[in-house]
Amino acid sequence: MSLEPTTVEKLRGLPWSYATNAANTVFSQFTFFGSVFVLFLNHLGLTKTEIGFVLALTPFAALIAPFVAPYTARIGYKRAFVLYFGARKAVTVLLLLTPVILSAYGGRAAFWFVAGVAALFSLSRSVEETAYYPWMQEFVPNSVRGKYSATSNIYTAFTGFVAVWIAGMVIGNTSGLNGFMLLFAAGIVAGFVSVWACTFIPGGAPSPAEAAGARNIWAAIRDTDFRRYLVGLALITLGTVPLASFLPLYLQDLVGLDAGAVVFIQMGTLLGTLASSYLWGWAADRYGSKPVMLTGAALLVLTPVLWWLLPRQMAWSLYPALGIAFLQGVGNLGWGIGAARLLFVTIVPTEKKMDYLALYFFWAGITSGGSQLLGGRVLDLTQRMAGQIGPLIVDPYTPIFLVSLFMPLASILLLRTIRGDSPFSTAQFAGLFLRGNPFLAMGSLVRFHWARDEEGTVAVTERMGTIRSRLAVDELLESLADPRFNVRFEAILAIARMPADQRLIAGLVKTLEGRNPALSVLAAWALGRIRDEDAHTALRSALDDSTYRSVQAHSARSLGTLGDHSAVPVLLARLESDEDEGLQVAYASALGKLGAIEATGPLLRLLERCEDEMTRLEVALALARLVGDERHFIRLLRQLRAEPGTSAAQAVTGLARHLAGAKSTNTDTTAQVQASLLQSSEAFAQNKMEMGTALLLAGIESLPPLAEPGADDIRQACAAYLADRPEVSVEYLLLLLFVLRAG
Predict the structure, then answer these.
(1) pLDDT at residue 471, as a whole number
(2) Residue 281 CB partners (closer than 8 Å, separation 6+)
(3) Domain 432-497 CATH class label
(4) What is the pTM of this model?
(5) Which of 393, 525, 552, 712 has the most Cβ atoms closer than 10 angstroms to its Cβ?
């Protein structure tokens, strides 16, 4: 037995698969699968039922799939594909004889001739497709399956766009069957090019053991997820295929577009495919098949309503039609990439791929063929339907629009219960595009992977944090694991700006627990800024177990920022036992943020011991937070720094007014206090800081205790400190003025 190709060989063969699909797209658009063929059948004078019959032959031929599957495995999936892929191109050559048959034997003979060619083509295609699905599951690595689908769709959409433009020009500038025959001939040439290209794709070797193995179709049918998948597929097919098949006739007969413009409508669909290919493929590989599939299906729910509301018999109807077609292309591709990837990666077991995929192709053929046949029959039966309900026009296509609306909805409800291949739900996936700017985020992701050096990577990483889109989570995690220190440093800063995400928090926790103190400190700070409950445990652990004092200090600060009151006993004990001033200040700051009144005494003792100005101010701020709003403390600090005397005078005057407005039991005492405060204010105004402070202390000495818990302890400590020193300490004066007003 031949070994399966290596991943390297598979990746090397993917460009040949892209070439095969691109060339085959030209063949498909010019022959059996584009608007050209529907318009060709209509030109022959066929009824809608007859057109539906011819179109249904191709999917109905899939009924032979379960029976030919062992044959394709025995001779080799690749060999069977190439043989019958070429056979269907050869059969298509017979279409070029249609004008001769029409001229010699009439329209009915031409109808049966075209139907016969379509039947032979369909049988060849059915064998080829039966071989193709197992082969594709083999030659496309699962790790890049979404990317493969996206890249293939980009190539096929581009070539299809060019093919449709050419087809529209040819149909619009020729008469009779001449244009159709010219396009058929060109399509056949492109078809044979695709046959040549597919011979270079690896894998698909004969598998006699698989062919001779016991068949167990019922095991596949009993698979609950596979069964739900097939029913969901049927609902989507019944909802979308009739509309897609007969849309060219709707646009021509009721909207009023000419044949050339109808062909051009496909360009909108192809543009939607081209524009969204990379996004859908990337999203499927990253976030899983199921959310992509269901999001695409949700878009398909909108399109029938938009087609129904399309203005009719208007010269400008072509333009909104192109927009609707664009949306339809986006939805079709999202559904297609997600559903295909889910099928190959999750639904179908590799060891049972022959039976599963044969049954899948069989079922897809039944539903697709039946929907086309039924759609054509419905259009013939409702050809006299007419009327209007509000803004909605009732016509022969109304039943198809209604089915196209409700069937995808039913499919979504069913498929959402299937086992997925990622932890992301559809709502979470859609939410990725609703927060931040998804367009800027996608641009940043592209630049991230193309960044040439450290400086460029740092710049893009910073930008991803500014955009605040969850689409960048994986790239930020990659930056967090980058060997370049500056990239990791910038990644932590960027993550701190992001909305809370469990994976990002886990990445920060891992960095916090690492052996690089510079990054661990920054990670502790970031965990406090993100404000997520999951950060508490990691920060408490770092506070207890980290061997780096700087990490302990920042963990304490972050616990204070997060409002973790359970940490108060530990922080208070460490404040009184630890001898490192930097750690003590960090504990003090955290206790201040937590409003721990019981820490008032230890904080006052720490303030008295500190000598550095900024350290003293930080401890003073911690005390201020225990009794009042820190905004007033910061405002007063800024004022004292700018104009110490004037600011102190204004603060004392404000305090005097406050006392005047307050109710007091001793008016004489209040009057004496006010007089002292006014004298203090006048001294401060003259920049006599020592005199102003002395008068202030004298004035407040007879005040009753402050009501705010802890405030009076702070007042007394500040007054005692200022009274014992000849020079005024700005920190104590600031804290005293603040607490007098706050308490």
Answers:
(1) 81
(2) 146, 147, 148, 149, 150, 151, 153, 337
(3) mainly alpha
(4) 0.65
(5) 552
